[in-house]
Design goal:
With about 500 residues, the protein is an alpha+beta fold. About 20% of the residues lie in helices and about 20% in strands.
């Protein structure tokens, strides 16, 4: 349960969000036994609240009837008070009064003083302290409709908020508009000064009824991504084959199959089954010990293995399958430049972590990127290419070797480094730009190798910005050391639209 503290408007009053906050990673932003639940209110027509704000009365809490101006909705002046035993709240605010001082002990704790009032915000549309980029990723999920929204803290103005709204137009396709929510000295809020509100809840309620100058009226609250667990269970690493059930075949390749499956009858997983003889079980197990230590939100998490042949590799399940299939499918037709650039930046973020860990992927391409809900992209199959024992692959120019994605020094001399991964990333960018077209169209592997050695580089794909093609060319520099780092690529792609789009939509002109 995350906690997000805003700057107090006046002494003795602070606000927290304990519902809907993304990415805080905390396990309890306050200590219940130090606080007095002063008042619990409910405002009609609000989003359902999480159970975290439905705490019962604690012995030793002195009740108080003092109303206060609530940042996210205030007191329900109808006088109705919601009982904690009546089920989920509809998005109100619970106020606590500190009975004595408390000094935080961890980064996820909250320091407070005796007598301070703290508000527990139940609104599912309030996402707290998440970045502009993360808000766009959540909103740009293809299942969201126009008008899907969230409210977050402003990154640029302390104490202000931002309303982020999903929009659509024929030029950009799906895109996100950001509106700064400013505070009045009197304590109110506004996007445009001609329409002012006493609380954020009132503001949201208004714009749900009327667009009133926004790109669209607010329709649905942005859904929250389900967090990924750190593994199947304690000590569940080498697992018995009998604990896995193969439910649905998702794909097949040269070296095995990929299945959606179930572990232990409870947990959905992805299972890669390798053909007998594909790799040495001993070498695989040794490599897997390294792979399981690589943990990053943009890497597909390795859960467990069956190390006897046929080898099974158990990973987290990604609902949309491989990026290559996703790009070539119906969903790929809906993707525009903002989504494609964001997907590229996610892949670069995963590879920047691989870079920091001094690891090498060796087979970076769209087929080895997996897509989940909300266009989340994660790098898969890192390190496995080195272990494959197949003459058609180990010859590096055989039919099974991905020559079109491989840097010349790796294809010709076996020099696989993070810089050869950068070359592969440049080719992957062409896959994104062309919605899954095979690189070097019309050329066979041998021809590609010869042409690249002579200095040939793929031209700019149709409808691809020249700046993106220049980035591809930088990944394909002959001298490996002159190629950019993944850290640079991540930063470039994450900031790609910063210079071309305003930070906020102009609220005063609404």
């Amino acid at each position: 349960m995350g906690a997000s503290k805003s700057k107090p408007k006046e002494p003795g009053q602070r606000s927290l969000s304990l519902d809907g906050t993304i990415g805080t990673g905390s396990d309890g932003g306050y200590h219940h036994h130090h606080l007095n639940p002063a008042q619990q209110t409910q405002t009609p027509n609000r989003s359902p609240a999480a159970g975290g704000a439905r705490r019962g009365h604690h012995p030793g809490h002195a009740p108080t009837n003092t109303p206060e101006l609530a940042l996210f909705g205030g007191v329900d002046h109808t006088g109705s008070v919601t009982s904690p035993h009546r089920g989920p709240l509809a998005g109100g605010v619970t106020t606590f009064v500190a009975l004595y001082d408390y000094e935080s002990r961890t980064a996820s704790d909250l320091t407070f003083k005796k007598g301070e009032r703290l508000q527990i915000v139940n609104n599912t549309w309030y996402f707290g302290k998440i970045s502009r980029r993360d808000s766009e990723r959540l909103l740009l999920s293809l299942q969201n409709r126009r008008g899907t929204f969230l409210v977050r803290e402003s990154e640029t103005t302390k104490g202000a908020y931002c309303l982020s709204v999903l929009d659509y137009d024929n030029t950009k396709g799906l895109n996100v508009k950001h509106y700064k929510i400013r505070k009045l000295d009197s304590g109110g809020f506004y996007i445009t000064s001609r329409t002012q509100f006493t609380s954020l809840q009132q503001l949201v309620f208004h714009y749900r009824k009327h667009a009133d100058g926004l790109c669209h009226s607010l329709t649905a609250v942005c859904p929250v991504l389900k967090p990924q667990t750190q593994g199947l269970a304690r000590d569940a690493w080498e697992i018995p084959r009998e604990s896995l059930r193969l439910d649905l075949k998702l794909g097949q390749g040269c070296f095995g199959e990929v299945w959606m499956g179930t572990w232990n009858g409870t947990t959905r997983v992805a299972i890669k089954t390798l053909k007998t003889g594909t790799m040495s079980p001993e070498a695989f197990l040794q490599e897997a010990q390294v792979m399981k230590k690589l943990r990053h939100e943009k890497l597909v998490q390795l859960y467990a293995v069956v190390s006897e042949e046929p080898i099974y590799i158990v990973t987290e399940y990604m609902s949309q399958g491989s990026l290559l299939d996703f790009l070539k499918g119906d969903a790929g037709k809906l993707l525009r430049l903002p989504q494609l650039v964001d997907m590229a930046s996610q892949i670069a973020a995963g590879m920047a972590y691989v870079e920091r860990m001094n690891y090498v992927h060796r087979d970076l391409r769209a087929a080895n990127i997996l897509v989940g809900d909300s266009l989340v992209c994660k790098v898969a199959d890192f390190g496995l290419a080195r272990l494959i024992e197949d003459n058609e692959y180990t010859a590096r120019q055989g039919a099974k070797f991905p020559i079109k994605w491989t840097a010349p020094e790796a294809a010709l001399y076996g020099r696989f480094t993070i810089k050869s991964d950068v070359w592969s990333f440049g080719v992957l960018l062409t896959e994104l730009a062309t919605k899954g077209r095979v690189p070097y169209p019309g050329m066979v592997n041998r021809e590609v190798l010869d042409q690249v050695e002579r200095g040939y580089r793929m031209p700019c794909p149709a409808e691809c910005p020249s700046s993106m093609h220049e980035l591809m060319l930088s990944c394909w520099r002959r001298d490996a050391e002159e190629r950019p780092t993944f850290e640079y690529l991540q930063g470039f792609l994450e900031d790609y639209f910063t210079s071309t789009e305003p930070q906020y939509q102009p609220g005063e002109n609404l």
